[in-house]
Amino acid sequence: MQPTLVILAAGMASRYGSMKQIQSFGPGGETIMDYSIYDAIRAGFKKVVFIIREDFAEDFKAIFEPKLKGRIETGYVFQKLDAFIGDRQIPADRTKPWGTGQAVLCCKGTVNEPFAVINADDFYGKDAFVKAYNFLTTKCSDKVYSVIAYELANTLSENGSVSRGVISLTGNKELAGITERTKIYRENDGIVFEEEGAVAPLAEDTIVSMNFFCFAPNFIDICESHFGKFLDENMSNPKAEFLMPAMADRYKAEGHGVIDVITTSAKWFGVTYKEDAPTVKASIEALVNAGEYPSQLWK
């Protein structure tokens, strides 16, 4: 069964202050997503599903449909605040959807095959998609998922601290756990993180998750089975998020199966801060000049 690429593009980009998912970064006006889709097509993916907000749909389709037509099948899923909440009442101060776990849940009925999930505003590199496609077509099952993992040094921003999911491994190179470190940055010649006022070092080659997972379709059902309880416990918290990595960890903890950790030496980059935009443009330009990508992706 052919796998699908699912792109999480419903975020409101609160830190960035604009709809960065459709901002141009490439020399031909390409978005970061264009490069992900291009790499996915090269790796073998035949279908992409965008998870977006319904009020973005018209603008979004106008940008992507003309250039992707005939190259890859497209689908759309709308992440809505009231999706899968049953008869619960949404508090007046809740304005944004419930996080990446709910976004994946919104794929129920649309994605029925093995799938990879990525962030819209992250550049993952060709190698990551090759490894994801190979896993999805040869090993993925209800009992084996994977996370595409990066070396921490290849994921930092020059313009501020970042949050990363630090991965711990079992002896079989399977995921033992993901610990969220919310304030990681370079200091002097090393990398450190802050937690409760204390500062501690992290190795350059620490393996981290950048929200690039490969799942079997039963993961969507696992998200659904836990979403109601999450809502009952967090409905009054306007910032509570039902997160995909937490559900992946729950899958493992409940004994449903294992999560392979597949490492890539690719350099990740993304736009966490507005100040990151020139760096991303320069990084893409360097890859184009090196012949990794054509100057016009879709011509």
CATH architecture classification name? Alpha-Beta Complex
* Series of H and E elements: EHEHEHEEHEEEEEEHHEEH
Structural class: alpha/beta
Q: Quickly count the domains.
A: 1
- Give the count of helical stretches: 7
Radius of gyration: 19 Å
Mean pLDDT: 91
Strand content: 25-35%
Helix content: 25-40%
Instruction: Work out the oligomeric state of the chains in this entry.
Output: single chain
Supply the CATH superfamily name: Spore Coat Polysaccharide Biosynthesis Protein SpsA, Chain A
Uncertain runs with pLDDT below 50, 5 residues or more? 12-18
So what's the overall shape?
Answer: globular
Briefly, what CATH class? Answer: Alpha Beta
End-to-end Cα distance: 29 Å
What is the number of strand segments? 13
The major β-sheet equals:
11 strands, mixed
CATH topology name, in short, is: Spore Coat Polysaccharide Biosynthesis Protein SpsA, Chain A
